[in-house]
């Protein structure tokens, strides 16, 4: 009942949620910078409210975040103290190409990530790098309309060629797009999309998604050409959908919602658009325009492994009853009466992780990698910066047990597990700091106040023990 030797334990962050330094060393403005906290955040990230620059009436948490840009050596040292084998992080596109369409990259940005990767290797940590974790240079959104424009494929290809060559030998695990299915739920944050009145929003989303899928295949092609040791993965927001009842209409609705999530991975892993998606897009008039050679590219350059985030399962009901709803990772669904819920209303379902892993592995039969899993909670910190976060330990313990059962009992091929997040950072959904996930407390509040001092929570020492025992000691 053990994980494999060399199982990759670690943690995951995103540049836009932790780096800060939004205007340092030549970095350009990105869509993720102009997503404010407060009631209008949802309107901005879904493309309903156009916000292309800062407005003094709003607070933008990603401008400074937790300033990992200037603290990365300290933070990686703390990750190493926990025993990390892998650190999943992302590159800020506008740090490499500030505008996105320049001929030459920004050397200061390239050097920053080179220094960061070397720091990881100094501590025996393997970087797992997401090329685009929602980041898109604002110039590409203003000038070209974001991923609705096919020219984005060329700009992304240039980014990939630069980073694959520059970091050859420093990075071998790559993810092309973070939670690619979020384009359907947070299109401005996921693809730089804002919508005009009367526009067919679904058609725009699926056209942008097609461009990202082609770009992902091109990235896979380039990565293998540059270094045969590179391993390329896709990444999606996972969580199996349960029917609320045995009513066949509930079961069918759950099947359709699962397919909506699997659609992107079907293309990236199987190499073609699935029939169910083609039929639906034909019916709805949302079929994307495909260029000659796209289908061949998608078929030839499928991913090596599939990575996923898992925070919760979902539940769906089709009756007209006024049942309660539950929140989730930008997905709302029917409230499952058999589950407990977090302070933010997210279902807590460890067995759902095992179910999801089995569903995904049965479907694709490729190695899996859990690259996000964690509990957002309000932490109470003492005068020494210490947090007694047994609730976080309990959540992770039960999910690791379920993950272990999926591997050792069910035979799922799992490469590794990186928690979200090893250190407190800005929440992608709400923009809050008080929604904390980390093993490391950061002195920062929702308004940007605080010293940014790092301190270890109780879960820091627990996770260190989990890693050193390769998942055997979970107490």
From TrEMBL:
Active site: 372
Highest taxon of the lineage: Bacteria
Keyword Mitochondrion: no
SUPFAM superfamilies: (Trans)glycosidases (SSF51445)
Gene Ontology biological process terms from the UniProt entry: carbohydrate catabolic process
Keywords: Glycosidase, Hydrolase
Gene Ontology cellular-component annotations: cytosol
UniProt keyword Endoplasmic reticulum present: no
UniProt EC number: 3.2.1.21, 3.2.1.86
One term of GO molecular function: 6-phospho-beta-glucosidase activity
NCBIfam families: PRK09593.1, PRK09852.1
Entry similarity comment: Belongs to the glycosyl hydrolase 1 family.
Name of the molecule in the record: Beta-glucosidase
């Amino acid at each position: 009942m053990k994980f494999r030797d060399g199982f990759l334990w670690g943690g995951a962050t995103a540049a836009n949620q932790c780096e800060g330094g939004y205007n340092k060393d030549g970095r350009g403005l990105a869509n993720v910078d102009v997503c404010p906290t407060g009631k209008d955040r949802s309107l901005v990230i879904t493309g309903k409210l156009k916000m292309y620059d800062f407005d003094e009436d709003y607070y933008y948490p990603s401008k400074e975040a937790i300033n990992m840009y200037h603290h990365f050596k300290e933070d990686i040292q703390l990750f190493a103290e926990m025993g990390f084998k892998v650190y999943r992080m992302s590159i800020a596109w506008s740090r490499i190409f500030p505008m996105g369409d320049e001929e030459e990259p920004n050397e200061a940005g390239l050097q920053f990530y080179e220094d960061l990767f070397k720091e990881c290797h100094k501590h025996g940590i393997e970087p797992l790098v997401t090329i685009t974790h929602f980041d898109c240079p604002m110039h590409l959104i203003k000038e070209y309309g974001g991923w609705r424009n096919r020219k984005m494929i060329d700009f992304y290809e240039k980014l990939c060629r630069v980073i694959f060559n520059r970091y050859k030998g420093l990075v071998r695990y790559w993810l092309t797009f973070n939670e690619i299915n979020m384009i359907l739920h947070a299109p401005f944050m996921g693809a730089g999309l804002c919508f005009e009145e009367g526009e067919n929003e679904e058609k725009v989303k699926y056209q942008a998604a097609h461009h990202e899928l082609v770009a992902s295949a091109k990235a896979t092609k380039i990565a293998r050409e540059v270094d045969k040791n590179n391993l390329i993965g896709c990444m999606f927001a996972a969580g199996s959908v349960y029917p609320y009842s045995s009513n066949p209409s509930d079961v069918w609705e759950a099947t359709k919602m699962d397919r909506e999530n699997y659609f992107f991975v079907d293309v990236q892993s199987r190499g073609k658009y699935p029939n169910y998606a083609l039929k639906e897009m034909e019916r709805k008039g949302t079929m994307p325009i495909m260029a000659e050679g796209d289908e061949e590219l998608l078929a030839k350059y499928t991913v090596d492994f599939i990575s996923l985030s898992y925070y919760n399962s979902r539940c769906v009901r089709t009756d007209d009853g006024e049942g309660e709803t539950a929140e989730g990772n930008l997905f709302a669904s029917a409230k499952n009466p058999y589950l407990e819920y977090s302070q933010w209303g997210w279902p807590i379902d460890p067995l759902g992780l095992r179910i999801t892993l089995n569903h995904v592995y049965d479907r694709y039969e490729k190695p899996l990698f859990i690259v996000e899993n964690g509990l957002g909670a309000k932490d109470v910190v003492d005068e020494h910066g210490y947090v007694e976060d047994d609730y976080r330990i309990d959540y992770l313990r039960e999910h690791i047990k379920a993950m272990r059962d999926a591997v050792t009992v069910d035979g799922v091929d799992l490469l590794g597990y990186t928690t979200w997040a090893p250190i407190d950072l800005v929440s992608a959904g709400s923009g809050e700091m008080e929604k904390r996930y980390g093993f490391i407390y950061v002195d920062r509040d929702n308004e940007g106040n605080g010293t940014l001092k790092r301190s270890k929570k109780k879960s820091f020492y627990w996770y260190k023990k989990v890693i050193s025992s390769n998942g055997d000691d979970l107490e």
